[in-house]
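Form 12-C: Joint structure prediction
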Amino acid sequence: MVQFSLIPHGVCTFLAPAGKKTTEDKLNRKDDVRLTDYFGAKSVLPHCGDMVRDDVVRTLVGKIVAGGGVPVGADELVSEVLSREALGTTVVRDGLAVPHARVDGLKEPCVAIATSVRGIDWPGEHQGKVHIVFLMLIPREDPALYLKVLRALGTALSDQEDFNLVAGMTSAGEIYRFFKNGRAYLPRYLTAADFMTSDYQALRDTDSLQVCISALIAGRTSELAVVDAAGNLKGVARADNILRACIPEHILWMDDLSSILDFEPFVQVLDDEHSTPVTTILDEKYPVVSPDSPAVQVACEMMKHKSSKCYVRDGDHFVGVVKLTEFLNKVFRE
Amino acid sequence: MKYFNPKFLLQVLIVCAATFGGMQCGLATNLTQALNIAVFASVITTTLLFWERRVGVAFIGVALLVACKAMSLRQMLFGTELDIILFLVGMMIIVGVLKDLGFLTWVIQAIISRNKMTGVSFTAILCVLSAVLASVVDEVSSIVVVLALVFQVCETLKLRPHPFVLIAVMATNIGSSATMLGNPVGIFIGNKAGFTFSQFLVGATPVAFVALVCTFVITLFWFRNDIRAMSEAMAAHRKTGLGPTAKIPYKAGLFVLIATVVAIAFHHQVEGLLGLEGAENHNAFLIMTPLVVAGVLMILRPSRARHYVEHDVEWWTLLFFMLLFSISASLSTNGITANLATTLTQHVKGGPTGMIPLVIVISSLGSAFVDNIVFVASFTPVVQELMKMSSDYSVLWWALLFGACYGGNITVVGSTANIVASGLLEKHGQHPIKFSDWIKIGAMVGAVTAVVAWIMLLVMPTPKPLDAGHAPAAEVQQAATESAPANQ
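Section 2 - Result
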């Protein structure tokens, strides 16, 4: 889940008029790209009060297709969007849904917006109704564009008052002007913050090995961050380090352990796990980036450390984790 | 001034002092020699003050000497002592295979499965194991193995490992002087002086043995409280043991080790059989044995061969050695060491015997603060010059060996084994040994063992090299003459 509150503002502070250049041209030339470059007032559907999810999607897709420039038929697009919904909810925060689909042959992203003060019932694992629907059709060839649009949207609606204001607006023109005049610019590049999750469990450096082992098992994970009282990242507790603690180092020197049959390496650790601090198995070499590091740096760090997680640190402060599976999902599938 | 580094200022001051001091003392009589001293002092001070930058500085130093015609390219290549480097590469690969085969694991398992150990017997085992392993493999591999044992025992008994780490390190440094295999210093001196393996054994092992006994006694007294605590903890752990035990296959590893040591021990006889005679073939089989053994092992274990070469060979260290040897060889070819040898013979009375304490003290103190190979590499050409005057000066090879190895005990940076031990302590979540704690016991052991070495060199007949003036040095000298660098 993308944490909007963590997205740094001001990445795109440059201002330049948007002409008829392609998004890629503009991003490469450091011109700013606004969300409103991808939709007009005609693509906005205010007050869709009694509609259900599928109707909202169908109506919004219809508005996009009516605008022209989409090489695929409306029914197929609706089917694509709903198929994506079936994989998992696109509600990215309370009250905001971002249904989307990747479309072959599409040159520019296409966006349509629906709002509802009463809220729309939106199937999926989330709480409450949806008040703003932001439907996106994204060129399949540009995996980063979806996340950039998402970041721009998150920036524009980061303030809850602004969110409520948009949800309550009565005309399409008002909604369009909000995004036109606001700070809804696409970032030049994706950062670690675009991929990270901050609702991530961490251990305290005062915890015991017993707590660590239980947390790893309960969380079905192979590693957990360890922080101090101030929330600073001290290292990573890894399951394989527990194995190392169980099996003495000198045994691991051997290439082939198949000759060792009667060996009970875990007894000693089992006896002492409650009194052994987690810091004894702490790994201080792990992939780490700052929230504003480019996404490619995140990938590079995970590759260098052969890890499935990259830790995000703001200064020394632990702020979140990028999981490899989430990273791949966002780049290749979202 | 934000980026001002006082250590850099100190380095500049030392290098300037060494250069001008060398000029004042008559060691450097022209600009080339002064530059040579400055480059050498820069490399030494970098190992002391900026450890991680030593290879970079050595690179630039070599380039500077070549660029300023203080050393020709041919001299540089001769000076790298590739024979010694290859010997070390072969030994490192063999140690990697010994680890793989389980031999070193078996050594540790054999000790922790002993049921009736006490603190004193563990300390004795620690001393003997450290010294013996260091003498047959090398000091770094030895300290890694022995500290694995120390951590296993201390973590099981919930004891502070620091005293036993210190004991192991001191015994390792002493044991590493016992044979040519124990320390890069040993093979360097043995090869430069022209000693055979058995000559080295006769000259070095008795001194190392007595020094080890003295160290054992000193540490027994110094760490008596910790050793007593270990005895009590061991008594309480009789039933549970000192760690998980397992049957480890060791015969293949033991065979490899014995075969290697025996082949090296008889290298002189094999050289005679093969007709490898003359200065250009001196110690040829000694150098080749580890390469042959490592080659056979890599052929037999092809899936691990790349691992041995890439992970078990300390390329970083060996690269530094090559550059350092090259720079120190330039001191000889430019006549600086000849000037130093003349100055020493003029000022030190008593001939070779009178110089023994001087060499021991200088090399001990030097090795206490700078990696001992650096000091030995710099002093070797001086002894070679003195050997030209009289073969009686060969006793100084031994003084240099013992001073460099025993002096390494004085501080935490005195030898590679000490630095590795400190790193392992931290890796095991322990605070590092304080400089003041180390130097108290280190200086005592260093002083006592240096005195032991001095006395034994006075009373014990020491072997003399079969041929004074080892071939590579002579070739370097010849190369120097041929290329005629502008050093005048």
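Section 3 - Comments
The longest strand of chain A covers residues 110-120. Residues 4-188 of chain A form a domain with the Mannitol-specific EII; Chain A fold (CATH 3.40.930.10).
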